[in-house]
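Archive entry. Fields below.
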Amino acid sequence: MIYPDNRWKHAWDGFILFAVTFAAIEVPLRLVFGYTAKGWIFVADSLLAAIFLVDVVLQFYTVQSEQGRLIVDRSEVRRRYMKSWFVPDFLAALPFDLIFLLAGPLGLPALLAQRISRLVRMVRVLRLFHLAGILRTIQRQSTLHPGLLRMSILAYWILMAAHWVSCGWLAIVGSTGDPLLDYLNALYWCLTTIATVGYGDITPDRTNAVQLIYTMAVMVLGVGVYGYLIGNIATMIANLDVARAHHQEKMEQVTAFMRYRNIPPRLQSRIRNYYNYLWESRRGYDELSVITDLPDSLKADVVIHLNMEILEKVPIFRGSSNEFIRELVVELRPVVYTPGDYVFRRGELGERMYFVSKGRVEILTVDDIEIKATLGEGDFFGEMALLFHQPRTASARAAEYCDLYYLDRSTFDRVLRRYPEFKKKVVAFAEERS
Amino acid sequence: MIYPDNRWKHAWDGFILFAVTFAAIEVPLRLVFGYTAKGWIFVADSLLAAIFLVDVVLQFYTVQSEQGRLIVDRSEVRRRYMKSWFVPDFLAALPFDLIFLLAGPLGLPALLAQRISRLVRMVRVLRLFHLAGILRTIQRQSTLHPGLLRMSILAYWILMAAHWVSCGWLAIVGSTGDPLLDYLNALYWCLTTIATVGYGDITPDRTNAVQLIYTMAVMVLGVGVYGYLIGNIATMIANLDVARAHHQEKMEQVTAFMRYRNIPPRLQSRIRNYYNYLWESRRGYDELSVITDLPDSLKADVVIHLNMEILEKVPIFRGSSNEFIRELVVELRPVVYTPGDYVFRRGELGERMYFVSKGRVEILTVDDIEIKATLGEGDFFGEMALLFHQPRTASARAAEYCDLYYLDRSTFDRVLRRYPEFKKKVVAFAEERS
Amino acid sequence: MIYPDNRWKHAWDGFILFAVTFAAIEVPLRLVFGYTAKGWIFVADSLLAAIFLVDVVLQFYTVQSEQGRLIVDRSEVRRRYMKSWFVPDFLAALPFDLIFLLAGPLGLPALLAQRISRLVRMVRVLRLFHLAGILRTIQRQSTLHPGLLRMSILAYWILMAAHWVSCGWLAIVGSTGDPLLDYLNALYWCLTTIATVGYGDITPDRTNAVQLIYTMAVMVLGVGVYGYLIGNIATMIANLDVARAHHQEKMEQVTAFMRYRNIPPRLQSRIRNYYNYLWESRRGYDELSVITDLPDSLKADVVIHLNMEILEKVPIFRGSSNEFIRELVVELRPVVYTPGDYVFRRGELGERMYFVSKGRVEILTVDDIEIKATLGEGDFFGEMALLFHQPRTASARAAEYCDLYYLDRSTFDRVLRRYPEFKKKVVAFAEERS
Amino acid sequence: MIYPDNRWKHAWDGFILFAVTFAAIEVPLRLVFGYTAKGWIFVADSLLAAIFLVDVVLQFYTVQSEQGRLIVDRSEVRRRYMKSWFVPDFLAALPFDLIFLLAGPLGLPALLAQRISRLVRMVRVLRLFHLAGILRTIQRQSTLHPGLLRMSILAYWILMAAHWVSCGWLAIVGSTGDPLLDYLNALYWCLTTIATVGYGDITPDRTNAVQLIYTMAVMVLGVGVYGYLIGNIATMIANLDVARAHHQEKMEQVTAFMRYRNIPPRLQSRIRNYYNYLWESRRGYDELSVITDLPDSLKADVVIHLNMEILEKVPIFRGSSNEFIRELVVELRPVVYTPGDYVFRRGELGERMYFVSKGRVEILTVDDIEIKATLGEGDFFGEMALLFHQPRTASARAAEYCDLYYLDRSTFDRVLRRYPEFKKKVVAFAEERS
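PREDICTED_STRUCTURE:
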């Protein structure tokens, strides 16, 4: 059986995408221009039929996913496919040109045979619906930016629709002899109308009801599509960089407030710098809000990925069971200090242990003047606060912008209660260190 | 009396809708083209009058709803109808063609009579306001998608407006002889203008002030309508599948965050799978947020509908009073576990009882290696935690994506306090099981 | 001094609005068509000057409001006016036609005098800025729907802009002889361009740089204005009935959820009915959320207006000090019960007292079968719960949709603590009733 | 090294902005019209080259900022610049006209040399990307309204794009002899198309595939750009005054509610006045929500800027350590009273101390009739509540709209615990005052 995450399957899906697109473009063109399939067009048509046939066969061996469960049972897969897309897929796989080449001599007048052939080939376009599924799969598994992907898919459908509308226009107004120019003119008319530019150099014959009605239909649909586009493009472009838009909006609000309340320029500049730091260091993402919806196990994996190397350095935790670290890590809370801020002061009662994720923190001597130590990325401090309820023995101050994580005592205690075997180790460690 | 949820009433409303639409289309056409009502048009007009007349009579027997209360008193219904829509409804029900056919010989010149007839028939259009009420009723009671319905109603009004604007244009520029082509051209001009395409093949006579002013009015109104449409279509289409839009937005945010923070591909894939599971299994709906606004009794009915079969299997609850189960059911909270997650571990203090709504949960033996039992849909576990404050005697682990509901002890106790008679049963059950 | 809420002032403001609008329309027209002020135009111009002059004088006696404080001091008012709008207002008040009529014989060539007159009169348009203030005042004090008002003001500015753009176009392309048709054509060109219809029957002379540049400027500005309009019209129309939009959105979400989870039709209908009741009885307004931002005193006044008659009927409260009732009333919380819901059951511990605002509540006898009493609008029940911690002595059930308010014991106690003198009364009342 | 906040650097950046814009406009024009660089154009070109060359040199000495850290190390700066923009910047700095003037005699045919020169000069346009960085810096450091700035930058890019599209059109349709008119016509065509006006007086030759395709591309891109614009202009204009929009929306909701519930006109007017006061006194800003995201130290600085003068007057705080005041100030909460509201009443238990920021508060005598004292801006009252749990000894009432800040006892206690040395002072102060 072929699994959904099979690499060859992905490649084949891409190939099918290409083949269906070709069919969807070629079928209406042949209906309008009525050319006979000769040479490379004949070959392409037969090839297409072969590709679609192979795909029908492959579908019988392809595992489907439903509500997060995989359907791997072959007979179940077959039963489902037979009931859903088998018939149209099989019809789309028939080599019409070949059939009518053979069928021709059987007695049907050549012209009639050709006309039937052209119409029947319309079933190939049905595969476009099948395609919607493939595009959805791509959308789901792609690591590309989802907004970009959605824009591409939307553009794909709109260009396809423009192609069909143009072919319809050609069928109504008739051809003048030069197929390429005719087609370009039809497409030009279609785009001029849908984009509501309406130069008016190509307009329907006002004594021809069919042309008038077709034009009106295109205009009405065009307004709908256009409205949808206008409404979506801004959203999509905005979503290409949601974070930046968010950051800018925040800046605008803060700036307006500061201007109105006459905050002095130096303070304004410090506030702007703080927000710029947040932006540059984390694109303004509040990691808490992103991971908040995840179930605990995934949340832990994400936070661990972001912080594991820090935790592993902490002596109390080194050698603890993986499970214990996982539970602790989920409880870490990020906090930012700007240059010169005190993380805590000597004499305060401590409740939190800090881990330095970025920046430098200075530990000060008794009188807060001399620097006793400077801690950097991966260091931690204040760990005694997790074990004993005692005042801080020194002050800690941020030397530059600092990203810290903290763990507070009540959380630590709560987690510890579930791991009694670890409690002894902690107490031993604390006695030794004190 | 006819009640609002009477099936025949709904059918009749649909019929009236159709009749009013016909009148609203035919009246301006006759005003513009000035044809005489002969043959089937005469019949249709008389039929319309008959239908409207029957509706006037029916209104006297139709129960109205006001602020959730039904007005069933016949005299009250009559009083209200006489004061509101009776006069215009009655005028609209007059068979004008018939009256003027009879009135003709009374001495009025035929031409004048016809002209008056045409103008007077405009009152029929007043029924469109009445129609608005019917559409609102349909909107309220229909089980169709509300967004789709609103789009249809909007389309209905816009097409109606386009028809009237076209007839107005015809009245101003005059007819050329072929009514159908004339009308199509007028409609074509109207749509070209409102959709802001403006080919310019039909433009007002620039020396004719009336045509210029009419065109300007249509453009100004058109911009308004168009702006409203553009602003709404996107919203409507989005609302056709709010859930999907929500899901996609969430995915875009999460993906952007993961890319920025360099989450490893395998973890990215797990997170994507989790969200896809949520989407496929429940369209991303958080059932809590939907039912949160409902009063307790409705909330209970909804949750019971979703979970009754599960609760009925639980031995402690079997045979309990309906009221008791209803109060418990409202307190069930859904929770999802991904494959491999521990629901709880042996030795932990338990506070929650779990019900399996979907997926498989494995109960593990002492050393967490062997599987003692596998629970599936409708099973429950951890029920002892509701009665006794004791450590879990085994671990429970999700074997695949699992939708569980849980009930925590404090809630259970709170509900139990109101049902003292049930408390004894629970204690007896617990003693027997232990 | 004239105060801002003076009725005559409002009327005068309306009159000024009219006069300024007239000036803003007439000034560019005279510049373009270059007609001489004769007959009624001369009179109108002189009248306008007189009106503006009176307004300048009135400004010296008009109290201004700033940051919620009124500036009533005359010298302060004068000082502020002299520094802000006095000069342009005074210039706009000069009777230019009269001055140039008199100045004519003084030696200036008549033609030059007229030209200067026309240009100088442009200062009158400056009053439009003054107008913005008046419009803002109207907006603030009007009891009309703010959205409707904003739409009207926007329409006013856009029509004004269209008028000026048209006059500018006329000035560039020159007149053909018929002023009315010329003006209509210019306005028609302007609207065709701004609404992006662009028929193309009036286009700039492509060898005339000025016309090309003017057209381009109008198009660029038009896109801006148009974009602003499109973006606002939908919002405005939506805001014309925010409540309905909200209600519909909610209904769409709920309906989608119910369809997806296969809620049975009868339950769906009950839920829809509940929301329809909320809509019909209170337009979906959650009164709590609207009044939540108000300071306590205003909040109390609003709630009292909504509920005073109910509270006054309650024996415990009758005759209490106004202040006491005001504090209690703010704490009332609304709650809705659907037909058949139990408000409370016999034997439960009561914590809340209920007031019936709408609907009927049935008090049941011991075995919950017979109805002991039916309470309606203005009745109250469960008042003993505020005084004693004892079980309910009967059950209460909603007979139809009921709007109740409740007051819970802890709130009552909190308020009571501030009014010790009232406490005795309550205890006495309770003893007597028990 | 040149630091990012160097004033000369800013000036130079502005100069570069101007030079690049000139290059971006001139390069495509020369490509299309093919004029030879003579006279002032030759000088301008050489000057441009010189400016760009100086800028390349300056880049080696310019400190870069990355994630809030400055890169001041010269070799690091050089290494980064060499790897990123050095090559294109250097190419853009070549004096092409000069080179080809000298290179001309070297044997290349003059015509060929010129053509190459024109094409090669395209690299100058690459500096536009560099420009994006400058614009971003301006955006970040400017104290201008961010929304206004973004609109300007957007307008800049769109005009640039329109210029290029117009030059492209000229290159395709060819010139007619008058460069200025030709260019204006091309720009006119471009704007007519992008703004979707589409007069149709300039349209592509329908037998010319290149012109058709170019037009279609411009239309498709135009729709995108236009959609983006339409979607953004409203947002931007709204953001120009977010606060006002917010205020208006609030007013609309409140007005709708009041109209629906029949609030009496006088009460409606009071509520409107309250919101107008909020608007006029603070543009509706809730300062708490703006500063809530800031780290504690910045938050303190902002609040201190807003309130320091008030706090310094309070005797208990006078002379306290700066740190202590900073911690207190962050905890101040704003509150508004409308005229006649009681802040507190005699006999109530007090928990809060109040600071008057604006307005007048009356302290009343025992029987709440006479006014004992009137407090104004900078005064404070109720300070005993912070120290002792005792009833208020007098009532306080707002005489007009009052902006107060309050500090409650639990907060005061919490802060005090960290400053034991200050506690004694407070107790001493309290004993002395009582």
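CURATOR_NOTE: Chain C has three domains: 1-141, 243-285, 288-433.
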